[in-house]
Amino acid sequence: MSDDRVTVTCDDCGLAETFDALGVARAFVEEHRTETGHDPTWELPSLASGVERAGDEAGVCGRPGCTDTGSPLYQGE
Ligand SMILES: [Zn+2]
Fold first, then answer.
1. How many angstroms is it from 65 CA to the middle of ligand 1?
2. CA 29, CA 64: separation in Å to the nearest integer?
3. pLDDT digit string (tens) for 8-20?
4. At 45, which helix (H) or strand (E)?
5. Separation of 31 CA from ligand 1 center, angstroms?
6. What percent of the chain has pLDDT over 90?
7. What pTM, to 2 d.p., does this model score?
8. Distance 17 CA to ligand 1 centre (A)
9. Fewest CB atoms less than 10 Å from the CB: which of 3, 13, 33, 67?
10. How big is the CA angle at 42 (ends 49 and 53), to the nearest 5 degrees?
């Protein structure tokens, strides 16, 4: 899938890079900030944030008490 791409842009120098992995993009942003003092922004596809939120709602720690029963993802038995 190519939907999980992260776009990093910097208005200060016209930078525009696309990354396949969130971690790589995050490291690049940090590096660019450190090296240039610019403030690049990164754009996450809406899918990624949705998945992240879903992970939170599902109770990733695995304990039943952590599960948000109000979440549409909750499957009560
Ligand atoms: Zn820059």
1. 45
2. 37
3. 999 999 999 999 9
4. none
5. 10
6. 43
7. 0.54
8. 11
9. 3
10. 10
